[in-house]
Amino acid sequence: MIARIIKRAFITGGLTASGLLSSAGVMRSARGRGAIFTLHHVRPKQQRVFDPNAHLEITPDFLEAAILRLKRENYRFIALDALPAHLASNDPQPVAVFTLDDGYRNNLEFAAPVFTRQGVPFTVFVTGGFIDRTHTLWWETLADLLEARESLRFDFGAGEEILPLSAVSEKQAAFDRIAAFIHDGSEALAVAKLNSVAEGHGIAPLVITETLTLGEAGLKKLVQNPLASLGAHTISHRALARLTEEEAHLEISASADRIREITGSRPTTLAYPYGDPSAASPREQMLAAERGLAVAVTTQPGTLTSDAALTALPRISLNGFYQKPAYVSALASGIAFRLMGRG
Q1: Using CA atoms, how far apart are residues 341 and 334, in angstroms rounded to an integer?
Q2: Where in the sequence is the domain holding 274, given as residue range(s)?
Q3: Cβ contact 240:275 at 8 Å
Q4: Among 190, 258, 292, 325, which residue has the fewest nearby CB atoms (within 10 Å)?
Q5: Which residues neighbour 155 within 8 Å (Cβ) at sequence distance 6 or greater?
Q6: Radius of gyration of the chain from Cα atoms?
Q7: Residues 58-111: tens digit of each pLDDT
Q8: Is pTM, for the whole model, over 0.85?
Q9: Per the domain annotation, does 263 fall within a domain?
Q10: 104 shares a domain with 65
Q11: ∠ CA(242), CA(133), CA(284), 5° rounding?
């Protein structure tokens, strides 16, 4: 817990310093051609005693403030599928692109009105298994499971262990350990084990999926908005790089096909689940291009350059822990990534 506090303080300090340098006109080249922003939940804040996914949500007010800040700094807002043309052009004006992962209901209820009011295009990356209620959001299931319990029995492969959960720090330690278990082995089997444990405690993971994410009817309503578009985000939300090539190919292709069934046209954009190098490797970039996906985005932080690989584009997360417009400026400047050795 102390390590997390120190890390956030370090990041806050870096953002503050980046903002000051940007205001002083230092390192202007770091801004590049613009930035793609990543969002997940957009909703009014609901306080929870244990909230391990707090970084994945921002408020509608902050989203609007972020957009207004970027407008003030002369960013042009474009849709993700218009990005290749911008990067191929000589247009010196930086662009801002907004994307939202997983297809949450609050994207329609709270985010879309903000984008509409401000005239900003946005792409929502949707997971086929969430649309059809066949797959679960394990990070949401796990948060609910740990929040209300004093202890939990869980088998990591060597027999059941009892995880203490009395303190928030113990809950966070258990969350991190189970998350690592999910990422380190067979994701599908580990998530199935978590779901089984949750069901044994009266939690229904598929109900969580239905409660939190848009189904086909909701997505059809969303894309009636001319500013909205859908992008592929696989079927199962598993890390593609840890699947066989055949499995990864099917995840990408079937996801795009599912969106075509909803909208009538096949998407040209993809977001890799998790999006870090361990989840999205050069193989996945090749597969995306082979399936006709012109743009694919990672979660690697950074700003855009003219020579950026279109199937491995960086994105900047609007993180729930750093909801200040000044931080948006600092991130978009690109200076923060230079200071932290990420660009």
Answers
A1: 11
A2: 32-134+213-325
A3: no
A4: 292
A5: 161, 193
A6: 20
A7: 999 999 999 999 999 999 999 999 999 999 999 999 999 999 999 999 999 999
A8: yes
A9: yes
A10: yes
A11: 25
